[in-house]
Each structure stands twice: as structure tokens, then as C-alpha cells.
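Appendix B, Record 12. Input sequence as logged:
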Amino acid sequence: MANYLDLQNAIASDLTRSDLGSQIQGAIQDAVKQYERQRFWFNTTRSLTFRTVPGQSTYTGADLAQIPDIIRIDRLFLRWGTSIYPLDWYEPDEFEFLTALNVSNGRPTIYTYVDRQIIMYPEPVQAWVIRPHMHYRLPPLVNPTDANAWTNEAENLIRAQAKLILYMNVLEDADGAVRMQAQIPGLKAGLDYETSARSATGRIRGTEF
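Logged structural output:
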């Protein structure tokens, strides 16, 4: 599995430059920031769960490490025995008014996401399993041995985008920038296709607005 250092070394080799260490790291970080806001098969999940705690309505990274890095919650489900209940989403201001006017505990039926926290209402009275379907940020690349989808499944895209940033902002190489701009759409399309193929159900579904 390729890691953060492998990606840096590959970019340095492509550019035949050994003196751009910090600039390459910065370009990789900027490239990841650009694409982490987009949905791919590796940054969306329904496989992670956490449990409610009696008397606790707010859930943070202490309950599930990915909660502070959620970009969008598609749905939130509560499991009770063999039954599964979807929770309704409320905008933070709507949630504020509801919870200010009503004090209740029981099985949560609504939720909001604000301040990098999931807040549910009513306040849980027992431990239920909560399963979010969500789009989230992968852990940041910090140490040389760090590895995730950005250094593996999406390595070609991040590598090309990082080089584009370097050609434009560091090396001021217009020809190099043009070459990268020509490559990036195909690399992005490949990831989009795989994402679509992996999530295909074979059924036509209405567009979510």
C-alpha cells in the first residue's frame, strides 16, 4: 500500500526535482482539499455505527471518530431489536426551537448536525445502535507512513492535481500545467465511473433535491 511519502517521492520524480519537499506536501494537501468535498466510493459509508448513551443527546468524535469530519449525512438510522427507524433531519435553527419548547426523553426521532456534532431528540433512555449513511473527510495525511484512499485508489488524480498546482504556483510552467489539465478530467471520470458502478442498484431512483 502506497503512503504519503511514496506519493511525495513520485511527484518529485515526475518533476525531476528534489528540492520541493514542503511545496509538494502543500500541493498534495491542497489537491486533497479540492476533491474531498466530492463523493467517491471510498469517502462515503454506511458501515460505521455508534451507540446512544442514556441521558446523552450530543455525539462527537469520542463516540465515533468520523463524526467531526462529516460533510453530509444522507440518512441516520436507529436499530431497535429487529426494527430499523430512520430519524428525521431538522435544520439547526428548527431543532433549537423544538428542543427549547419541549423537554422529552425516549427513542430519538429527529436529529441535527452542527458544530461537528450529531444531536438527537428526544434524549435517549437506553443504548440503541445508530448507523449514519454519510459522506466524510478521510483522516489527514500528516506522517510519512500515513496512507488512505488519496494515496492509493485516488493516487493518480491527487498526483496530477498536485503537479498542476506546482506547475501553476511554484514552477510557473505553463506547458506543464496544460498537460496536467488535459489529464485530470479523465482521471476524475474514472473514479466517478467506479463510484457509480459500486453504488448501482439496478433500479431507477428519483433525484434527491
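The beta strands are 44-45, 50-51, 58-59, 70-80, 83-89, 105-106, 110-114, 117-121, 123-124, 129-136.
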